């Protein structure tokens, strides 16, 4: 276990709460991921979708040591292990009643004919299905629906990997295809 991931003697006490008295978050063991996902789980439980999306971005940037840069590159996705992908996906799926999550987005990508190769037409179909593209206009993050009335797969949006303008084909489509490939290799989808 690397030094940053090794639980320290004070890791069990966060904000005055003794985590040892509670079971691990969604099967996670104490370590950097479980500490990071505590806030995400709470936000999702409270249906604070916009804050949860931002927290997902923070977690991903943290895991890839890209917080200072503020964005992820395709090669950074490999720094996130399968357990971490699964945990984040499970939290989103669980607390949205299977409406939101990375695997939901991957299923939509496949259903619109998306492959490992960037495809503008598939990207547009994906955008329409997720509600990221409305009347041929790609929405900005601030314009998304942060509620359960949003289309399936609408969240997480995560500006860390797709650029804040949702129609950003060269960034968004390439990152989405890389994420789908990672989820496939992890057997999450």
Structural overview:
This protein is mostly helical and 189 residues long. It is 45% helix and 4% strand. The chain is built from 7 helices and 4 strands, in the order ββαααααββαα. The strands form 2 sheets. Strands 1-2 form a two-stranded antiparallel ribbon. Strands 3-4 form a two-stranded antiparallel ribbon. Strand 3 (133-134) and strand 4 (137-138) form a beta hairpin. Helix 1 (32-45) runs antiparallel to helix 2 (49-63) and helix 1 runs parallel beside helix 3. The longest helix is centred in the last third of the chain and has 17 residues, at 169-185. Mean pLDDT is 80; it is low at 1-30.
Form type: globular
Give the percentage of residues in beta strands: under 5%
The structural class is mainly alpha
How is the main sheet built? 2 strands, antiparallel
Distance between the termini: 27 Å
- Radius of gyration, rounded? 17 Å
Strand order of the largest sheet: 1-2
**Got a strand count?**
4
Number of helices: 7
Order of helices and strands: EEHHHHHEEHH
Helicity range of the residues? 40-55%
Mean pLDDT: 80
Can you tell me the residue ranges where pLDDT is under 50 for at least 5 consecutive residues? 1-30
């Amino acid at each position: 276990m690397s030094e940053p991931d090794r639980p320290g003697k004070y890791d069990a006490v966060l904000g005055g709460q003794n985590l040892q008295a509670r079971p691990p978050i969604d099967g996670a063991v104490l370590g950097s991921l479980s500490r990071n996902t505590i806030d995400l789980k709470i936000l999702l439980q409270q249906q604070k979708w916009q804050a949860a999306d931002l927290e997902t971005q923070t977690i991903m940037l943290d895991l890839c040591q890209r917080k200072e840069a503020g964005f992820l590159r395709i090669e950074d996705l490999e720094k996130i292990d399968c357990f971490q992908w699964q945990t984040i996906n499970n939290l989103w799926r669980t607390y949205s009643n299977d409406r939101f999550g990375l695997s939901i987005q991957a299923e939509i990508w496949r259903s619109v004919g998306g492959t490992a190769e960037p495809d503008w037409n598939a990207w547009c179909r994906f955008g329409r299905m997720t509600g990221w593209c409305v009347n041929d206009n790609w929405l900005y993050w601030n314009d998304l629906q942060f509620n359960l009335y949003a289309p399936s797969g609408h969240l997480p949006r995560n500006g860390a990997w797709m650029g804040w303008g949702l129609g950003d084909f060269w960034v968004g489509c390439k990152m989405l295809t890389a994420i789908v490939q990672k989820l496939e290799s992890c057997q999450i989808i």
